[in-house]
Amino acid sequence: MAFGIKRVDVVAWKQQIDQGQIAFLTHYWLDDRFPGCKTVTKVGCNDLERLAEWGKKYGLKKEWIHHRKDGYSHFDLLGARQKEILKAEDIKERLVN
Question: Which residues lie closer than 8 Å to 84 by C-beta, 6 or more apart?
């Protein structure tokens, strides 16, 4: 279940993806399959090869991309990997304790 996200943030994320950029969207999220994870970061790009190459530098596999019919395919980052990657990308404002 996603919550704590503003429509303006989703629109900005989609615009960045539409422009071929690597785009980050972090929001609160609860799922019983992932106990202890309070947030998820979606990292998307409309150029799936570019997205796969970006993920490769963090050990993310191309087959882990969540392929969406609406064009907003993305990786989902959770837990320690999420924090590690956001720090490496210097996106500290999205880190939630």
Answer: 58
Number of neighbouring beta carbons within 10 Å of residue 14: 17
Contact 66, 74 (CB under 8 A): yes
pLDDT digits (tens, 9 = 90+) for 58-97: 999 999 999 999 999 999 999 999 999 999 999 876 555 4
Its pTM stands at 0.89
Distance CA 46, CA 8 (A): 19
Report the number of distinct structural domains present in the chain: 1
25: closest CA among 71, 91, 70, 80? 91
Q: Label residues 23-47 b or e (16+ Cβ within 10 Å = b).
A: bbbbbebeeeeeeeeebbbbbbbbe
* Single-letter residue type at 62: K
Helices vs. strands in the chain: H and E counts, helices first:
3, 4
